[in-house]
Amino acid sequence: MISSLRIWLLITVCTAFAAPSTADSNNADSNNQANNNPLITMETSMGTIQLVLYPAAAPITVANFLDYVNQGFYNGTLFHRVIAYFMIQGGGLDQELQLKPTGEPIVSEANNGLNNERGTIAMARTQDVNSARAQFFINVEDNTHLNYSKSSGGYTVFGKVITGMEVVDKISNVDTTNFERNYDIPVEPVFIISVRAQNPESSAQPNNP
After folding, report:
1. What's the pLDDT score for residue 180?
2. How many other C-beta atoms lie within 10 A of the C-beta of residue 45?
3. What is the reported pTM?
4. Going from the N-terminus, what domains does the chain have, and what CATH number goes with each?
């Protein structure tokens, strides 16, 4: 099945990475619950990751992500591309490494003032800036080269890890392999068991990060 799979090139891998952030992404922001921002609990085969979403900064992206969450789309998918000191990417391939059918692409909101810092979640895409659908990635480092610019378009950040950054780091360090044109696939599959949302209705009355 792998030989018949065509994994899109969603993120350009740069040869140089940003220095690690000094911020501790494991410290939860106590205001997130009070502000009723959507909270995401992502159960993976390597542990639990909790994120807060920022609908004020990325209303289209957050609504799109929550739609996939509420459909159960991400349940049983893989982190199919992981690169140490860069990012972990998932949310699009099933356990047979088959690309899941998705809805229509969404408009980029990368020019929203949010940067691709360690612990942030952003939408993956093709070279077309308005091609994001379901796949996402979590930044392991401060990836400034993924930030918005007029020349590159950037990648839309729409939330951040508030607990479980150690799980993200653990996933980013698994052994990977390449197969034909597919790169950085974990040797031992890393599953997204389930993704659940709290306060999803808050996207109608969003708060800034």
Report:
1. 67
2. 13
3. 0.82
4. 41-204 (2.40.100.10)
Nearest partner of 55 among 109, 119, 133, judged by Cα = 109
Report residues of the chain scoring pLDDT below 50: 1-31, 33-34, 204-206
pLDDT at 68: 99
Q: Give the length of the chain.
A: 209
Nearest to 139 by CA among 31, 64, 209, 51: 51
Contact 163, 50 (CB under 8 A): yes
Residue with tokens 């995401």: 40
Q: Which tokens sit at 129?
A: 């800036």
Q: Which residues pair with 121 in a beta bridge?
A: 138, 159
Q: Do the Cβ atoms of 184 and 83 come closer than 8 Å?
A: yes
Within 8 A by CB and 6+ apart from 45, the residues are 189, 190, 191, 193
DSSP 14: P
> Distance (Å, rounded) from C-alpha 69 to C-alpha 63?
10
